[in-house]
Amino acid sequence: MNIVNKPNAPVLDSFWMPFTANRQFKQAPRLLVSAEGMHYTTDDGRKVLDGTAGLWCVNAGHGRERIATSVGEQLMRLDYAPSFQMGHPIAFDLAERLAEIAPGEGDATLDRIFYTNSGSESVDTALKIALAYQRAIGQSSRTRLIGRERGYHGVGFGGISVGGIVNNRRVFSQLPGTDHLRHTHDPERNSFVKGQPEHGADLADDLERLVALHGAETIAACIVEPVAGSTGVLIPPKGYLERLREICTKHGILLIFDEVITGFGRLGTPFAADRIGVVPDLMTTAKGLTNGTVPMGAVFASRTVHDALMHGPEAAIELFHGYTYSGHPAACAAAIASLDIYQQEGLFTRAAELEDAWQTAIHGLKTKPNVIDIRTMGLVAGIELSPRPDAVGKRGYEVFLDCYQNGVMVRVTADTIALSPPLIVEPDQIEQIAATIGEALDRVG
Ligand code: PMP
Candidates 117, 120, 283: which one to mutate for ligand 1, based on the most atoms within 8 Å of Cβ? Predict the structure, then answer.
């Protein structure tokens, strides 16, 4: 099948696309052929403003030459080296760079870095580290993992088990011994809030209820996204993450923040942990780590967690876990170049400085047809639409298509439009994003 009637158009049959309605897509494919700065170019030569930083990952914008050059040079110097029982300097260099920006103090500093290749792998790695840690400190009855409704933690079996998205769970089996907190979306008490909502810290007490139900001695870890992105941008109520931290500490449960989206400046600070002032025991990252250029993830572990696993005979492998491409040289080069750009261009601070303009522009859509809530924090936004009675997600999808036709890339999850522009976005581009969505909402109705 080649239904893109353009020169050099690809044949579409063989690529089984992820999280995509393949048959529908292949009837009317949307193909992006190049990207620079804030814009994509489509296969029919149109410019599309990137309102989503790819999939929440291209924080420094597209086509950064410095990253491409570093990766190319690294591949010519050392393209690959075994990642087990062997090392290469750039993997250590990157870990030191990440340690410099890691949240926490003293033994709670999250400056021990385990490399993965994606957010999903970071999540499953963090869950396994949590289990290994509990066993190492003599708490091997702690095997239960707690997640949260509407959580998205990637697509590994660990991630879907602690995640709370029914479509990702229902077809597959689950890890035994997982349970979930309620999600924090509460439109009765909080709606159209800029930043963190006032009400809902009490929802963290769900963890106390699960402790009462299962026994603390069975629970290894609790994982949450500080801001839940993929299920519609749910901002944590004030005091909620603080309370979760307290309960975890009280009961010997490790707290894991999944910062795959919030890491690397999205909220105007290096990590959500910095913005909110709550330090977890483990933190998962990916996406912005390499500005989306080369697949890579990293788990940040506290010294306490790391050190507990460093006992035993010296020649013994401490953690039976790792990937062929853990700390791949090309990915490390991409990550170091990305960190250089973030730091030299002050992009995390820039995101913080743009937050007011961002929130004002997006909340300006409040009175548009079918908008039932708007949630914003840092350079993230969720615009929730009322679903059509006959089809959940259809209205959102139509808005996405309309925006795309009119030159702005938005993301849609069910009927929530999710936005996360690159941190290099200019004020007039913020206005363009808001105006294009506004017109789409008028048109779609
Ligand atoms: N965790 C979170 C919070 C995410 O948002 C995502 C991806 N959107 C993942 C994990 C999974 O990342 P990946 O797709 O790189 O496996």
Answer: 120
